Amino acid sequence: MSETSTDGSEPGQFRLHGAWNFRDTGGLRTSDGGHTRSGLLFRASALTHLTDEGRDTLAGLGVTDVFDLRGDAEVTRWGSDLAPDSVSVHRVPYIAAERDAPHERAVPATTARGYLDGAYRAFPTLPGARVAIRSVVEALSSGTPSLVHCAAGKDRAGWTVATVLRAAGVVEEDIVADYLRSNAAVTPLRRHIFDHDEVAPADLDDDLLGVREEYYRAGLEAMTAAHGSFDGYLDWLGLDRDAVTGLRRALVDTSADQRPV
Which is higher by pLDDT, 86 or 106? Predict the structure, then answer.
């Protein structure tokens, strides 16, 4: 069981100073008995407030590429990533005209579950998501240490990372567990919204600021309805057998002496 700090966050949630919901997806189990490599696929909230310390951390981790899933208007509104000079930032918006993140459009709280359910059901057919996911897979397949983020790092980034992990053969239990870890970042997200928006506290419940397995399952249902299967979805994404093999070769470690205990 993970230890928690006094504010309820898991260890590592605030390792990237100036961002939150940050983690390395290494150590997840795969169906072939391996595990995902550490130091290759990271995820976080937006890097618009990254401090010098945060930039040093990112550079020290060896991250060379960042994939920003936010819309153009979101970037105009909130600012561009403050990444180190050594990092290439790739703008791959799910929806280019997006002004608000899903959790921002879902206020008030009474509409949160229904709205986020609908947002996840849209993810599997968004042309922008297709480009974003394929771009991340291509980078990882070449061994490029990459960080994926949206605004809060939980919905668009959550779907992107879950899709990449599923393509790499990660077991479903671990995909869901990584996805749900974003709930440990509710506190800093709430603080960020209070600092930057005029929102009533009653509108900021955990259904809005966190994630629920049912949101992820709604996306999977829509994916199956639209593409027939996960293999059909990979085809639509433009990821053929060679692309998937390349991803697994780069992201998955099957050597017995390297598996986590």
Answer: 86
Residues 6+ apart with CB under 8 A from 14: 20, 22, 188
**25 is an active site residue:** no
Q: Say which of 150, 151, 218, 250 is annotated catalytic.
A: 150
> What is the spatial distance between Cα 36 and Cα 170, in angstroms, rounded to a whole number?
8
Q: Are 35 and 26 in contact (CB under 8 A)?
A: yes
In angstroms, the CA 123 to CA 48 distance is 24
Helix, strand, coil percentages, rounded to 5, for the chain? 50, 10, 40
Average pLDDT taken over every residue of the chain: 86
Q: What CATH number did the domain enclosing 45 receive? A: 3.90.190.10
Of residues 97 and 22, which shows the higher confidence score?
22
- Counting the structural domains of the chain, the total is 1
